[in-house]
Amino acid sequence: MTTENNTIFGKIIRGEVPSEKVYEDDDVLAFKDLNPTAPVHILVIPKKYIVNLFDVEEEDAELLGKLLLVAGKVASEQGLEEDGFRTVINNGAGVGQSVFHIHVHILGGRDFSWPPG
Q1: Which domain holds residue 26?
Q2: 103 assigned to active site
Q3: Which of 41, 101, 103, 105 is the catalytic position?
Q4: Distance between CA atoms of 60 and 76, rounded to whole angstroms?
Q5: Of the residues 41, 44, 68, 85, which has the fewest C-beta atoms closer than 10 A?
Q6: Which residues have CB under 8 Å from 80's CB, separation 6+?
Q7: Is the pTM of this model over 0.85?
Q8: Contact partners, residue 45, CB within 8 Å, separation at least 6
Q9: Domain CATH code at residue 86
Q10: What is the per-residue pLDDT across 63-103, written as a single tens digit (0 to 9) for each?
């Protein structure tokens, strides 16, 4: 597993690239997506560099759980409780992962169809 994070998310975590943060603690950062696909489109990322779910280790279980806890909290703060929201984790370029640092998309504020894509 790669340990050096030169992705745009690594640069955001280090403060090299600005972002519109909506949540931050020692482990997790949430910020508004620069190219939103919904009225509410927020990304929740771990500060620890993990490429995607294929690179998750047993020791990351608590951190991944925290990503989902933060996603729910942020979605609530964004007023998405009544109509709901979608979470997405893309794993690999073939399914839309464009930044290779694991992240949870929070999408809401409009109707979504099923199946996605």
Answers
A1: 8-108
A2: yes
A3: 103
A4: 25
A5: 68
A6: 40, 106, 108, 109
A7: yes
A8: 9, 12, 13, 28, 29, 30, 67, 101, 102, 103, 104
A9: 3.30.428.10
A10: 999 999 999 999 999 999 999 999 999 999 999 999 999 99
